[in-house]
Structure formats: C-alpha cells, structure tokens
Amino acid sequence: MRCQKLLECGHRCPGLCGEECPRRAFCIQCGSKGQEMVDLIEMKTLSEWDADKEPVIVLRCGHVFAPSTLDKHVGLHLFYMTSLASEAEHDPNGTQVEDEGMLTCVALKPRVHLTEGTVKAPASCPTCKVVIMGVKRYGRPQNYAMLRVLEQKQMIETDSKLALIMSVEAPDLARQQKELTQVLQDLLRHSPTKRVFEAAFGSEQCLVPTPNKTPLLRTLVCLCKVVAARLAAFNYEEKAKAARFFEKNRPVFDDALTVAAETNASLRATTVRLLLASALASVWTKSVGSSRESALYHEGRDMLDAVLKSTELSDADRAKATEVEKIFEAQLTQEELRQVVQAMGGGAHTASDASLHWYECPDGHPYFIGECGGAMEQSKCPECGKTVGGQNHALHSGNARADAFMHRVGLPGSAAHFE
C-alpha cells in the first residue's frame, strides 16, 4: 500500500506505507531523481513508475527500487508466506519463487531450519552493493543474515584462539586447559545467535537461526586432547589423583560426543572416542590390579573397538589407536604381575623381601635389580629412555623404590619391609 503522507513539495509520497518517507528529490512529479532506474526487469525509471500500483523503496544509499525488484533479491519469500509464492509455500526454503511482481506477505512461515548456505550474507543494493539497512520490510531476512555473519566472525576468532593455544611446544598442560576452558565459556556466554534463539524458542512463529555448534565442538575436542595428555602424565604414585582428575573432566568427553552427534560430525566423534579410550587406558593402568574385569577396561575397549571399526580413521589416528590397543593388551593383571615378581625373586625368601629388588625410573616405570638388590650400574629405561640404576648402591637421581608398583601387585612395599 502506498504511503498517504505528503512530501515537502506537496506531492504524495511514492514510498510504501510504514517506511520512512524519502526526500523531496524522490518525488515522482517534481523530484530530481526521476531518471533513477527502479525496475531492473522492465527498465523503467522513477518518473515513469506508477506508485499507486506498486510503491517504491528508497534505500539509505540513495538508490530507489520497486519491491518487485528487491523482494526476491533480499529473500523475503524465505520468511513469509506470500500471495504470489504459492509454489514456494510447499518448499520450506522457498526456492521455487517464479512469480513476478511485488510479493504480498500473508503470514510468517512457521519455524523451519533453513539449509546451510540459503542465507549467506545481508543483501546489498543492486547498484552500489551497500548493505540494505533501515528498511522495515526486510528487517527479518536482513537481521537473520547479519546474525550469520556475526556467527562466522566468531568462528574465525575461535579458530585463531585455538590454533594459538594448541601450537605451543612443550606446553604447560594445566595452563593450556585453563585457557581452553575460558574459550569454551566465552562461546557459551557470547554466542551471537544463542540469546536470540533462546528468547524465541517458545514461539513457533519466530524463525531464528539455530546456533552453529562447530566452534563449540572444535573447542571441546581440543580440551579432550589436553585432558588425555594430562592423564598420561600422571605417574603410578598419583593413581588416586589421576582417578579424581578423570572423574572431574569426564563430562568434557561426554559433551563433545553429544555435540558431534547433534552436528553429524562423525570424524570428530571418532577422534573424541579415541581420546577417551586413551584417557581410560591411562587411568586403568594406574588402578590397583589393572583387572580386565574392571569397568574402566571394558569401557576403554568398547571405545577403542568403535574407533577401529570407523572407515574415516586417519593414518595418525590409526597409529594412536594401535598404541592404545597395545596398552590394553600388554597390561598384566594383578595375579600375573604377582607371579612375575615371585618368579624373579632375586634371592628373596619372602614376598616382602622381593620389594627390595624393585625400583622405578623418574617417570614411574618399574625395573628389577638382581643379586643383593643394590644399584651398581646404570642403564636406560626401555619405556622412556631416562637413566635407571645407579652406582655403589646409590640410586641415580629421580629413581626410587617401586612402592606404588608393589602396592599395585598386591605385595607390601619397602616401607612395610622395614617396619
């Protein structure tokens, strides 16, 4: 409907009712903009246009167009049921609009999920490419597109933060986890679409973009990597601490798997399962007895089996999966370890005496010294390459009695021997 107001010159406004009235220069009768092209199909100018039949829209950039030119350019049919888009009303994305003329908006479309890429960016002026702003008729599609632009900007910023945090060589894992947790909290608090989505969730007649969870998933995957690395760094004496740390951070893995399922990110889901299997292996190997009947073992094996069945496994992930599988398969049970300790003996007459022959390297890997059990020479740990043994019955720096290992075997440690 044409606006009923009058311009400064006294002639009737040529614009749409409800929109801001243009300057006098856009008057059809006496304005200086009469040669502006308003219809790109019929190639008609403003002075030739019948505003009673179809009012015009004057953009802030100073160009003027008929709604029939701008409506489909902006994507109005994606958000409203229209009288001229009967074909498109059966298509939730409104991609079949072929009718010509100004669209008459009948009602808001019910909430639907627009396919990825349907709305890429806010529409711009066909002539000068300046983004269309301040036109009430196009408020909904333009605001929707602007949210997507802000969301894309946040995704780029998040990727930059993650790359910076994860690129540090020999990082402080605790600090790295803290920084990633802050990135995650920022995503949850300041998502450009989250507040709008939540505010409109109760209305079936409010079409808003679903928050993009890709940055959230990428951050959670990075957190899973750091948590798994921290668990692997605990030594045998810190088994209780490792168990508490895993219990506290387990939700990170669960959240990552949930988001991966919601976004159909099967490749990232496989990566998370592999990291969880690695974390479970780290906790299981430090648990007393390391029984294959424990829940940790079975869950870890289940996760690992799911990973190995994946057809999307990269070469690096497959190598990691093989490494984790060796941990589960090579780890001896408590009874098997007890038999090893008793078989090696080292001249010990009792199980308690056997503890005097077992030591651990600086990284907590156990090793055995025969004869009297005193260190007389040095070597390298086959697991980590650090110095083991010692000279003249004195252990090399960082080596110690393997009390944690003996406790894991179920035999008294050196402290018990001297009580």
Describe the 3D structure.
With 419 residues, this protein is mostly helical. The protein is built from 13 helices and 12 strands. The protein has helices at 67-74, 139-166, 173-190, 194-199, 214-233, 239-262, 266-286, 295-308, 315-330, 334-344, 351-354, 403-409, 414-417, and strands at residues 37-39, 44-45, 57-58, 64-65, 80-82, 105-108, 358-360, 366-368, 378-380, 387-391, 394-395, 400-401. The strands form 5 sheets. The protein has a 3-stranded antiparallel beta sheet, with helices on one face. Strands 9-10-11 form a 3-stranded antiparallel beta sheet, with no helix packed on it. Strands 1-2 form a two-stranded antiparallel sheet. Strand 9 (378-380) and strand 10 (387-391) form a beta hairpin. It starts with 36 loop residues before the first strand and ends with a helix. The relative contact order is 0.06. The model is unreliable at 85-99 and 414-419 (pLDDT under 50).
